[in-house]
Every structure is written in C-alpha cells, then in structure tokens.
Amino acid sequence: MLNTQERAHVAQVWDLIAGHEAHFGAELLLRLFTVYPSTKIYFKHLGACPDEVLLLSHGQRVLEAVGVAVQHVDNLRAALSPLADLHAHVLRVDPANFPLLIQCFQVVLASHLQDEFTVEMQAAWDKFLTGVAIVLTEKYR
Ligand code: HEM
Prior knowledge:
single chain; mainly alpha; Globin-like; binds protoporphyrin IX containing FE
C-alpha cells in the first residue's frame, strides 16, 4: 500500500480539490467520454451530449467517493464495499474502463494544478487510484 510520503502527496493534492468536487468530477467525466467514447455506453441516460447539470451531479458523487477513499487509505475495502457491489453486480461496468478513468483523472489534475502537481504526486495518485479501482472491481470474481 501507500508509504508515508505517498500518503502525504495524496492528501496534499486532495486538499487542493476539496470543495470543488462537482467541478473536477464533471471535467473528469467529460474528458472520459471525449477521449474514450466507448465509456458512454454506461451513461446512456445522460444523453448524447450530457448537460452540465447531469455531469456536475454525477461528477460530484464520483469525486466525493474518491474523497472517502482518501480518508480511508488503510481501509479501502471496507470503505468502498457498497460501491464495489454496485459497480460489479448492478452496473456491471467492465473493469477495463477503470484504467481509462484513472488516466483521465490524472490529466484533469495536471491541467489544473500544473507545476504544483509534481511527478511524485502523480506517481502517488496513480498508485492510490489503482488501489481504489482494484477494490471496486474485485467483486466480479
Ligand atoms: C455510479 C464512483 C468508476 C460507471 C457511481 C457512483 C459513485 C461512483 C460514487 C454513485 C453511486 C450511487 O449513486 O450510490 C466511482 C469511482 C470510480 C468509478 C470512485 C473509479 C475510481 C466507474 C467507471 C465507470 C462507472 C470506470 C464506467 C465507465 C458508473 C455508472 C454509475 C456509477 C454507470 C451509475 C450512474 C447513475 O446512476 O446515474 N460511481 N465510479 N464508474 N458509475 Fe462509477
């Protein structure tokens, strides 16, 4: 799992995002749908050109869940258990989509935080989000 320095990097970046979950989340979804259009099959109810209100509301829910994960880095499995059930058993999202979302997330962070988002922070966030994705996809088996 994350070492002390990686945890500090994750927390430091989260402090910059906290309070702007809807905005970052909407941008994440828009980027995901634009760069990887195949991901939109899971969001047909958002329409071909999802309007900002829908993007903001779902984006906020996704980012708030990431915030919960930040607060529970040592206990992701328990903290994210209901969300893992949802994605595996109800939504049945193909796990191959998670690395796509992780990549888009990092691009959103880099484009906003610019030089503040160091290579070490990016490495820590990549590891952290991969840990979140592992938990969210492990109930498929
Ligand atoms: C719903 C988080 C990855 C598709 C949700 C919800 C949250 C969430 C918090 C709302 C749950 C609720 O209403 O109770 C996350 C996180 C992810 C992730 C933290 C990865 C780090 C993905 C991926 C896809 C996906 C990769 C597909 C490309 C969906 C869909 C819904 C959903 C279709 C339902 C949307 C709706 O009800 O309007 N997710 N998700 N998720 N997620 Fe994810």
